[in-house]
């Protein structure tokens, strides 16, 4: 009888060889956990040891932030959130609307189409966004593009954000390849709220689709100002999973099984789930 060695599952990140050593590489998520989570201590001071655990000792949260892989931002991202102004002619009629941080520079100038002279301006409650990478050439053309709001429709809840109707898109420099039968979910970095980028999440069968997957997003912030999101900031959380059928059931729970679980839990003061039920994850990289 011949035994066939079991092949390991894999995920591979590929990019243009000309920029491979220029941009930061994807890493296991365990190496790019949120700063707030890394900084918090596992135990609150001045509390009884059995009741002193912080979220640092919550294994479900740890698994959420450490599973999968992180694609870091490949270059500094400059973001300006600026007000929108109505510009009026000499009769007080609105002839132009524009987002700008220097509205006074438009006074006295003509509108492009109607050639009206803009004599005054009023600040509106609306905001505009200006977003830019440095002059980096990744060989991918335009690094930031967008979608029309009509592509998601007015029932989409993104509209609750001040700039939620401005649908932007990152051009991703990485091609991802996974083992046969494996896909990946692209999502926001788990429990990481360090900036106001909100991805529109998606799933791709990366075992057959060998191409860059670009990432649509919106800016959820409503604060005027200028911001730099540094190169290397966790941007995309990549979660590989195996496509398989799962039997689905809805019923009453097994009372005996649940009681036995609780009895086992109550033999420990803390770290109950971690020491009694949890299976430690393994990630290479």
Could you explain how this protein is built, in words?
It is built from four helices and 15 strands. It has helices at 35-39, 59-66, 255-265, 272-276; strands at 11-14, 27-28, 69-72, 77-88, 94-99, 120-132, 144-147, 167-170, 175-178, 182-187, 197-199, 202-204, 215-219, 225-229, 234-242. By secondary structure, it is mainly beta. The model has no long low-confidence stretch (mean pLDDT 93). The strands form four sheets. Strands 2-3-15-10-12 form a five-stranded antiparallel sheet, with no helix packed on it.
What are the salient characteristics of this protein?
285 residues; mainly beta; 5-stranded antiparallel beta sheet; 4-stranded antiparallel beta sheet; 4 helices; globular
Termini separation (Å)?
A: 34 Å
Largest sheet: 5 strands, antiparallel
Task: Look at the structure and give the mean pLDDT.
Answer: 93
Look at the helices and sheets and give the structural class.
mainly beta
Q: Helix share of residues?
A: 10-25%
Total helices: the number is 4
Assembly state of the chains shown: single chain
Note the beta-strand portion.
25-35%
Secondary structure: elements and pairs:
Blueprint: E1 11-14, E2 27-28, H1 35-39, H2 59-66, E3 69-72, E4 77-88, E5 94-99, E6 120-132, E7 144-147, E8 167-170, E9 175-178, E10 182-187, E11 197-199, E12 202-204, E13 215-219, E14 225-229, E15 234-242, H3 255-265, H4 272-276
Antiparallel strand pairs: 1-9, 2-3, 3-15, 4-5, 4-6, 4-14, 7-8, 8-13, 10-12, 10-15, 11-13
